[in-house]
Amino acid sequence: MAGTKRKAAGETELAADEATQYDRQIRLWGVDAQKRIRACSMLVVGARGLAVEVCKNVVLAGISHLTLWDPALVSEHDLGAQFFLGTADIGKNRAKVSLPHIQALNPMVEVVADDSALDSKPDAFFDAFDLVCVTACSLQTMVRFNNICRAKKIQFFAGDVHGYFGFFFTDLLHHHFLEEQKTQDRNTSEEVVVKKQGDLTFCSMAEAFSTTWAGKAVKRVPRLLFGLYVLDEYNKTHGRSPGPTTSSDDLELARRAAETRLSVAPGTISADFIRLLAANCSCELGPVAAVVGGILGSEIIKAISGKDEPLKNCFLYDGLETTGLVECLAPEEKKAAPPNQATVVQEAVEVL
Questions:
Q1: Minimal CA–CA distance to 160: which of 238, 57, 54, 233?
Q2: How much is the pTM?
């Protein structure tokens, strides 16, 4: 059974036991933000290491409902990063095996597992959710789900981990947020909190990954970003991700196709890096899933609660270089528009 969507935060009063359980985070982000979190019904697609990191964070935060949707069976590759799985679970459905462990984190959250095929649901299935997070899928599948969510005005996240590398993408449509910053009053020297409200407009995943780089400086672009285009080109041709045994010729064709799609000079994308990325595609590393999943979970909480400015819009983590960078991917016409990031539309000052 799916969750009940879009119950207004004001209608979600916290019971005494909830107020006690969530006391520390209420002190951190306030009662109103906790009510918005408590009102949220969320769908997570995929039940590998990255997904369960996200599930752990949002369930502990106290959302109302979580559906974990994954038709895949547990394999040996899952055991390295998915900490809810063991050797006895091999051959069982990933979502159903993970469900009792996730539920045990917070009995106040309704948790449901769905093992149906990813192409089996009508678009109306998504009506039950306020936020959707898609993992362990091809870029094409992520774009398809994002298009459905945009049409229904549902906040959307997508991400994956490939060995040492991981990423996630954010589409919050038009998002309003509140930031609080501590500062010192110039006149009284008292510590005060400055509240700033801001608005951000996000593009779709299809728009973001149709961005071309002709005539732009690409030296500082994270190598993983262009690598994702290569993986997408390979998947379009072969219907699956590459692996350690994928032929160099097939990877080279995908690399050249990605360079054409990006409108960059031949040789811009390193063939050596693509071979390395392909070798990492079939596995998740626990530490990488923890880093990317921790940041992704935090961004989801920001989106639900409306507290603090979210990342816009693609986070890329390179475990070999130990760097996590944010790229703002957008069509040219949207990049040319006046920037709206962290626009201050109102200020208020409170004395602590």
A1: 54
A2: 0.89
